[in-house]
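Researcher: I'm preparing a figure for a lab meeting and need a structural model of a single chain. I don't have an experimental structure, so a prediction will have to do for now. The sequence is pasted below. Please return the structure as tokens so I can convert it later.
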Amino acid sequence: MNIQTLPATAGERTVAHLIERAGEVLRSERSDVPDGFVARLFERASAEDIAVYKPDEIAAFAAQAFAFLSQRQPGVPKIRIYAPEAAPNGEASRSVSVLEIINDDMPFIVDSVMAELTARHVHVRLVVHPIFAVARDASGRLEQVSTDEPATEGERRESFIQVHLDRITDVATQNTLIMGLEQALADVSIAVHDWRPMLARVRDLIADMKANPPPLPQAEQTEAVEFMDWLVAENFTFLGIREYRVAGKNREPVLVPDSGLGVLRRADAHELRARAGHEVIIAALHAFYAEPTALLITKASLRSRVHRRVFMDMVSVKRFDADGNVSGEFRIVGLFTSTAYTRSTRSIPYLRRKVDALLKRARFSPSGHSGKALVNVLETYPRDDLFRIDDDLLFEFAMLILDLDERPRVRVLARRDRFDRFMSVLVYLPRARSSNDVVEAVGELLCRSYKGHVSGLSLFFPEGPLMRAHYIIGRSAEPIEDPQRSELEAGVSAIVRTWVDALGDEIARTQEADRARQLFERYRKAFSASFRDRYSPEMALDNIRTIEGLSAERPLSVDFHVRPDTESHAIGLKVWSYGGAIPLSSRVPMLENMGFKVVAERTYEIRPGTPSVTHVWLHDMTLESADHAPIDVAALQNALESCFLMVMRGIAENDGYNALVLKAGLQWRDIVLIRSVSRFLSQVRLPFSQDYMWATLRAHPAIASQIVALFHARFDPRIADSKARAAKEAEIAAAIEAALENVPSLDEDRILRHFVNAVQSAIRTNFYQIGADGHPKQQVAIKYESGKLTTLPAPRPLYEIFVYSPRVEGVHLRFGKVARGGIRWSDRPQDFRTEVLGLVKAQQVKNAVIVPVGAKGGFVPKHLPVGGAREAIAAEGIAAYKLFIGSLLDVTDNLSAEGAVLPPDNVVRHDSDDPYLVVAADKGTATFSDTANEISISRNFWLGDAFASGGSAGYDHKKMGITARGAWEAVKRHFREMDIDIGVTPFTVIGVGDMSGDVFGNGMLRETTIKLVAAFDHRDIFIDPQPDPAKSFAERQRLFDLPRSSWQDYDKALISRGGGVFPRNLKEISLSDEMKALLNLTSDKATPAQVMSAILKSKADLLFFGGIGTYVRAASETDEQVGDRANDAIRVIGSDLNCQVIGEGANLGMTQRGRIEAAHNGVRLNTDAIDNSAGVNTSDVEVNIKIALGGLVRSGALPLPDRDTLLFGMTDEVAALVLRNNYLQTLAISLAERNGMDDLASRQRLMQSLEGRGLLDRSVEFLPDDAEIAERRRRGQALTRPELAVLLAYAKLTLSSDLNETSVPDDPYLGKELYRYFPAELSQRYPDALEHHRLRREIIATQLTNSIINRGGPSLIARLTDETGASADRIVRAFAAVRDSYGMTELNGEIDALDNKISGALQLDLYAAVKRLMMDRMVWFIRNVDLEQGLMAIVEHYKAGIKAVARALEAAPGDEATIARDGRVNEMTRSGVPERLAKRIASLPALTVAPDIVLVADKTGRDITEVARTFLAVVRYFRLERVVDAARQIEATDYFDRLALDRSRDSLARAARQLTAEVLKGGAGTEAMDAWVKPRATEVERIRASMHEIADTGLTLSKLSVAASLLGDLAGR
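Model: Understood. Here is the structure written out token by token.
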């Protein structure tokens, strides 16, 4: 069997591809289905209907269809309904049932089937109905199927219908539907089968009427015959015929046996039937028989199942006997075709006669207006009625309708069916008032009037002010008297006009005439039927008054009012909403939050204008207080209405605090204040929910009122007397305390006390400031003194400003008055302060290198568009940022041009002057600096565009690459100290980030030797197992230069074998052998998360963090503690890392515990704050340059463009200054790490000291407590680099703060540190501007702090303080004296120049040698020099003396010390140290005594050369150099052992000075020494022998103490 496929038509192209694929599927699964069957079945399917299916589903439908087609008994319809199973790749078929019908092809099948489905309200989704030419055997089995016409006698055409329906699961429903379809198809079949016989019978009838004319007027005979000819001329669809004969004394029609054809073959088919009874039918027929007419045209009582589901038309033809009497009827049923309705009445027999008769009767000229109008009335008259209406009634109705042209009005024209089966009623209504409600109401009126139901309705809208509704009212059996037309018209008029007319009267009564006309025209159509049913026109006028006051700018009005006949706890509320309804789901929660229950509600749309945006919705509600407490509407009305309106406008938020209006009588602004404090308490982790807190305040409304009163007493700027303010505060606080005694719940007591504490800890607020719009500012900013808050997680900042509004919330934390840090766009609305606090901890460490201490801010936009475009989200974020920044400035002092402090307006200050507020970019705000500076400038804030670093008039960090370059200094140091020069040695890198990012992109361009083997960002994973360094570098450079690039832009041809770029949204990634080896994975596939985790754990030289996220934690931490849920699946633990070095270019790539764990496992790393501090350092320099030049710019001495040119011109030098800090900070950590166990005790002492001052919480910073340190000491495990980094920062922050409280920054000599901070060009051109810098003292203190801590280590100050008792300022002065007297800056610079030229360990040894000398001599200067006399003179004096001593040492004859020094020089030069530097380093131990020699020279007045020779003679005589050298090797891990060691060494030096002075009394040099010994030989030799023994037998701390004591005794004699 084969099938031929018809060629596709143009209309089939949309589904051709889908059907073709379905055919392929079917061919692969069913070989018995002919090719092209799918195409033939679905070729006429609607494209949009079939497109929902997959090819597999379509193939399944076709397979089912073919199976159904394969067997059918000819002549019998075959019907089934089945529920298809879902295809493997499709879901649409799950929701449908499929109806399939096979029948002999004949007319009307599809129409009739669809009509049956429509009548049964079945929803159809798809219909196909191809015609197949088939051949079947005697049993009905399919033998052949073709789309051609039958080619052989055995072939026949069959109609195949497939309809997809909403799924029908009920079997009874299916069966009922099938039965209905079978009946419809049976009617179709019999009607089609009998069509020709029926047509023949009718033609015979016509022939008989012509041959044997009935005894009727000639005109009637002729018109009847022509009408019958018109019917058979394809103007009527014949569905059935019957003949009746008149018989019996009652002359009733009796069916002629076997006369029925078509649908009237059935005995149960009654074409005439009335509920009023058989007698009514007979009476009407008798009347018809008596009339001089040949035909009766009416509606049958049968609905058609064929073609259209309507009542069939019936034509009855009288039959006469030979005597001319009516002997019977010939009844025809069927359907008029469309021509009967579309052609002119003048072309249709019978109708044309009616029309001509009416026109003649009316006596109108056919060419006149009235004649034409009447013709139009008849042409538009309902055609079915025109066939049936009698001439007299038609004339009456036509004239009445014609009158409506001149005077439009309500008109009701009712016609009773001849057989009393229905009423046909034409109702003319004003078009403008004929709403659905009106049409429905008129129908109900007619149903009541005629005791029936609406059986049909059609609407006609001619030109003009009226419309026509044609009602068919199905009659019941109940007899009625026809109502008068006037009664009906009065009833309809009442429906159409009454309420609106009354409204017009009311408006006219209360308004001036013109205004009344305007209002009536505007509101005559505004009110719905439901509104009119409930409210009188008088109440409507009240609504109009309210609505007239509404607009898009003022869209709401409310009225809380007393309802009559309600209890005291119930009130009414009306809400008018302009432009849109307020959903009940919005109103109910809002009112419940205000303390109400909504017990009844109605909503009405009022439409006073044409655009829907001008419509107003009235929400009329009945409310009760939730606790049934009485409501004093008069007292609370204004407060309630204000609160409701503010919440609706978004100015106040919708929560339970709003009930404080009802409960405590608070105003909405007071509630905003309470809410602000509550949100702040949640952010500081108060362990109570917002719901619990507002419930508590609602439970204690008096205390809530007092808390508000306390705030007003504390901050209301109208209270000028500070004493009166304090007294008022104390009075209210006492009242609150007394009230709290009666609070029974401990939790509620705690909550209320926290509110009170927050108010009392607040020191500033903008709550009383007025915005530019003349209203109070929506953003509430409250500045807190954090230390006063009773519940606050550590660490505690100095100040914090909390900003609250419905649109944005945020917080800004500052750890000092001069502080800086970025502002982050947070995505953590529930705990953004926790996020900011974590960031500011790192910022504190990072800011240790700059002037300001740490600060950080974060804000959360609360109205981001859900699902909005990127631009819309960004716009709302910027708007929220502006509000947040503006709120911070609201409570910040300003400075005048002269430097005077200008407090903010309407702000009561409970703190000292506080004008320094600077911000910076952070996550989400990278491009916002210009925005912040615009706000600063617009407010005339003293910092101008120095307020926010970066921006268009600031340093571009990405262009400078400064953050990455700073981090790279740390990376280079790690490798350099491993004796690897990454500038020439290729090294492998894994990382987080992509080349479009600032830090990662710039970082991966730092060296051409980088072999980036793997990286990932938030979009893609990049893997290149064996990269070519040069080619990959060039490609990374290309990506960096490409705007918005991603790893997907990487040239895949450059990726080595086995690598690739993989989107992170893949389900899994296939792993090549190379990837498995690189990532240490064994499976063939892995999820993206598994691959990224493996990257982090893979073996590499460097792991570089340049993207957002926390990827490494400690084994002792949980992912929840990390607080970065987005990366939980990727994160690894520190001990799993297999890299050698980590560079943290990005923040928070690791937790601090994760860093420590990694460091314990041999990974070299610092912290993010150390590695990426260059960015914040650059910003700080930028801000301070702008501050320095600010006065010149404001005065006009330096135009702003020139300032910007100067600023950008210093970019490279600023970068060099910044990178120098990165270089030195990482060196400081390396030197501290080198002395790990030796300095463990002093570092422990530092931590204890900081804790004692309340400056450090070791648990917060993850530093070891004393027990852990003891355990580490036992294990020989020192502090790790990450821990040292934290200590380094704390040491700097503490020292800088301490120095600012001293005169150190004012010391003229130390003042030169100011110029070392700024670029040289600035210092040279504008020295006066620098000298008058507002932060001059802070800059000097910071510079000194960095210098001393970088060179001396984090515990230097604490150690020297304990050792000498000196204050910080004295220690710093001693440092400056030692550094500059010895020329240590230049000396360290020479060591710096040896990067990658000598081993890393040796280079650290050289630095350590300088450091030892520095620390040793600082103690000496503290103890022996009056540092207050002026550092410049001290330095000049000792610098010259040290040089003289150095010359003396060079000239001294060789001895054991000289030989040892020469040996050290040789050793260093062999290792690559330049000889000159080697000699300087080797001479440092000897030069330790130089200040002693200078001091002796000062005291004795002798030449320094003589003193040097003598001092050396004393040293050599007692072998002191050996003792001192050995003392340097003593390990004193205990803190007090270290103090003892230092004191013993000092005692030894003091004794040596005293002995030298004694010897000098008898001369100088060796000779003088010998002379001095001679008279004391016995005692001196005894001590000398002891000293030699101590020096030769291994020095210990106890031996050193003895040596110092012995020599001291000798010197004291």
